[in-house]
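Quick note —
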Amino acid sequence: MLLANVYLKRGKDESLRRFHPWVFSGAIHHIDGQVQEGDLVRVLTADGSFIAVGHWQIGTIAVRVLSFEDEPVDSLFWQRRLQAALQVRRCMGVADTPQNDTYRLVHGEGDHLPGLVIDIYGPTAVVQAHSVGMHVCRHLIAEALQQVMGERLHNIFYKSETTLPFKADLGQENGFLLGGDAEDVAMENGLRFHIDWLRGQKTGFFVDQRDNRSLLEHYSKKRAVLNMFCYTGGFSVYAMRGGARLVHSVDSSAKAVELVNANVELNFPGDARHHAYTEDAFKFLSQMQQDAYDLMILDPPAFAKHKDALRNALKGYTRLNARAFEKIAPGGILFTFSCSQAVNKDQFRMAVFTAAAQSGRRVRILHQLHQPADHPINIYHPEGEYLKGLVLYVE
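Predicted structure written out below.
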């Protein structure tokens, strides 16, 4: 297939020579050939030298680079990339282990596949496209995934209704590309969780907090734990295994509360230490008893999904953490997070610092947290660092 050529303006190839995987629309001089959103294109310098191949898309990011080599993007290409991603997960010890069958296999730019996310839940892979190009290639990707994963893979669920550009008007519906009779229980570090890949957020579970949940377990013994924005209750279940004397989970979604209750029951049937509340987070924090909890988790949804919302997001993080500092018991430990890519770690830390100063409490930083190894950051794409967290000791 003859690909259209995208010519860059003179001097606009510097970031690509440093292997940054995006071509911005302002860097393009002209296009030689017909191109539609989702098409593969070759990117050339002003003097006509090849520099990259990738998916064309409409918007500020015009090309998401798949390769800096002039190679065909075919079945073998997808197999090589997926095999490389699996090998990395085996190297880090999260794939093919008896205690863990839940991990991220592909993390977009971090695995040199921008626009693609694949999470593994036991025998089921949940595939999510964030670009039209990856949507167009979904069947090739599914076939390559079967080749790489072999008999351990029984189901492939494609979940991209809410992640594809809405202007593309693809009419995409979620559904199985392979299998369909899938059990919704997967294992993480020996704990079992119901995974709602049909209707849940993201791919059905927040895989990126696995290491941070393990750290929380270490601090949970004999503590009273409050898990705000609990969603599926991952932190709550780990806290219970860690020996917490009570665990309260809070979420504004009644469906999330149902799910956290189901996950607690799955691992600790009949355990009276846990109770879940359907309530707004700020309202709950305002009304709760002083010093009722000495271990708190604040893991809210993204307050800023783009730069325009940054100022209000930082105010939101300050306000939320200030409430927690006001109410947490002396000697308490606060796990606080931001998953907003638009908020960098220095801005988040400043928001938490401001909240601590407003409360007048003495606060120590015990840990600085980030996304786990199966959500790798491409060294040439620092924008891939999105999860930020602090573990704080509050006197």
